[in-house]
Known about the structure:
This protein is mostly helical. The protein is built from eleven helices and eight strands. The protein has two domains: 3-224 and 388-392, Cytochrome c-like domain (Cytochrome Bc1 Complex, Chain D, domain 2); 228-379, Cytochrome Bc1 Complex, Chain D, domain 2. Keywords: Heme, Iron, Metal-binding, Oxidoreductase, Peroxidase, Signal.
Amino acid sequence: xxxxxxxxxxxxxxxxxCSGEDNDYTEITNTGTQAVSEETLQILSGTFGDNINLNNLxxxxxxITPNYITKDNSxxxxxTDVKATLGRVLFYDKNLSSNNTISCASCHQQxxxxxxxxxxxxxxxxxxxxxxxxxxxSRFARETRFFWDERAATLExxxxxxxxxxxxxxxxGQNGDPxxxxxxxxxxxxxxxxxxxxxxxGDTTISEARLQESLAxxxxxxxxxxxxxxxxxxxxxxxxxxxxxFTDQENTGKDLFFRPPNQNGAGCVTCxxxxxxxxxxxxxxxxIIGVFGDAxxxxxxxxxxxxxxxxxNNAGIINGALMHDASMPSVVDALNHYNDIDAxxxxxxxxxxxxxxxxxxxxxxxxxxxxxxxxxxxxxxSGTSVYTDTKWSDPFLN
Length: 398
């Protein structure tokens, strides 16, 4: 059965955007604000070749989505093709770093589900403090706060914080760094941004709000719903029945994932709800309190996690270490952690992991075979097109 031929798929409707006082949120269509001149096309062609064509924009706003995917947190900044295209350019542009060496995509690489297979990522003045989080299906999540410690209230707010971080992209305005205002001036002097902002907004003004809006639209457009799980879920009435396209081991893992601990399951679904497999926004710390590079430090502020989709690529290879401190090199390691959690000394541990009334920690009594079955099920959550679709790829000519 071909995924795109399945009749149960319906597109999510294109929503009208809200207007803001600064007129940065007024675009409500998938086309630019004016006709594209031949001169503009030639200017962009010199930088992007055929990768960016304003007369034939890639489809970001009206992608096919399974009808059982109901979450959508993009209402205040709905995706349009034109601004997501601008966001794609910004996402891959190394000019957004102070020394022109780092882009958003340096730490969030398409080949690794928009994460990094290194434990921490290299910035302009050092390394990131935590492992780079996968950016899969951020639109389809209940948790709308960002960073591992949820310090950004929205994805929009998150997008410019790494730019203003001294270690990451260097426009902090501290320690001799240039400021964000310096970045905006820098971008206004780049010819292709004059053309792209004119096309998207009707003028060449570049502001932080516009950077945030367009970057967030591009990131929310990154979706992955062509996995083995999706192929099985489409023809099943619900997640609780065996999927006909699964192996026995995968169905066993699925059953363990959904069955609560008091019924001899793992209860993973309590925090990672299907079918999006996003994190419950009320979740507290998961028992991982390490700090990368400092064996004596602890950090209980981490309460967020990415979706469980695309932990592995479509070849079954893990897309990098797990957890904020990259302390789990494999899914088996992570599952063994959840199988036996010590609550001692963790004041922010999620109550669901405290092991009941005693509160001493969780012990699921999963066998080695159970752990491997759960890993097999998690592998079914990995798609294919997210790694190859050119609309999410680097638009710059190399």
